[in-house]
Amino acid sequence: MRLSDYPLVLLVSTFLGLLACVASGVRLERRSAKFHQADYQKQLAKSRNEIAVLLSLLLGFSLGLVLSRYDVRHQLLVEEADAIRTTSLRAELLPEPGASKARVLLRQYTDARLDYSRAERDEEARRAALEQATKIQRELWQIAKSAVEQRPTLFTSLFIQELNETIDLNERRLAAQQNRLPRAMWFVLLSLSALTCLLVGLTQRPLVIPALMVMPLMISIVFAVIADLDTSKSGLINVGSGSLERLRTDLDQSSPSSH
Known about the structure:
The mean pLDDT is 87. The chain has one domain. The longest helix has 54 residues, at 38-91. The chain is built from eight helices and no strands. By secondary structure, it is mainly alpha-helical. Helix 2 packs antiparallel against helix 5 and helix 3 (98-118) packs antiparallel against helix 4. The two termini are 47 Å apart. It has helices at 7-31, 38-91, 98-118, 123-150, 154-178, 183-203, 209-230, 242-254. It is rod-shaped and about 90 Å long. 81% of the residues lie in helices and 0% in strands.
């Protein structure tokens, strides 16, 4: 479990922690007379600005990185829905009873993938949905294998090709969800943020309380946005499952029992 899995908790904890760094800087400045010297203050302000620039660049880089990964997760969801739909259409070309069985299994497979997408932080539910999807994949493959043994045709090859794509997209979605911002990057960002806020407390003159809160608040908000885009389990920014939901409705409407 990672704190970045809970963006709102990260927002509050980061803000309080960075605010404590600012307060530590203010307290340190008051206790040491050398920090009152103009030259010393000038050097500290220069260091603060340089570190803040580096922090801004790293935050921008991290934000762009997780945003691109969010787009990849969304695109893979759409591609998976399209692959399942095409597999269902090509299943109609299989000899019976394989065609009917395949279409029923594909509706169940869509349900399993929907359950996985909706589970969010429930790891047990996600694991159960993943196991169900894997089981259905094996059953679909057995249908494809039987179709080839009975009557190998171009239509059977097309079905197998699209079934392979459906199975591959399942794994690609899992890999995309596990591709997270490294912990080392979070450590660097937190360290530079703490140092920047400490220097803000040392150099902020005159002492204006609202001004001291600006830097911790800005950094915390960016951290929360990065964490929200980086996780697919929780938060306010989610990929959603609209494509799979529409697919499930289409499969129900096109099933023989619905007519």
